Amino acid sequence: MNLKEQMKQDANNLLNLDEFAEMVVFNEKEIKAIVVSGETNIRGDYKSIGTRDVKYFLFLKDDVKGYKANDEIIHDGKKYAVIRSIWDNGFIIKLEAEANKSVMPRTGGMYGRY
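Request: output the structure for the sequence above.
Response:
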């Protein structure tokens, strides 16, 4: 077995349901992923304030081949939209996705802070 084959086997072992992985739905297809929680609240800037729920999903690259921004991931009954790829080692890809994004303009105060 060469190094490339060994790395692919290691990636499959990492995404084992008995270890770290869980099932999610990616574009209506059920696949394995490791899910990492990210930030759940952002403050925004002086013009607006907002919140969002961010998660990072590690997939076998072949399972999400051709992914694009706004692809849908369903995890624990909540819909997430893919924002971007964080990294890719050739076998596993880490996608950042968000749900419940809301942005509201700030009103009042000298710089709209209140």
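The longest strand covers residues 92-105.
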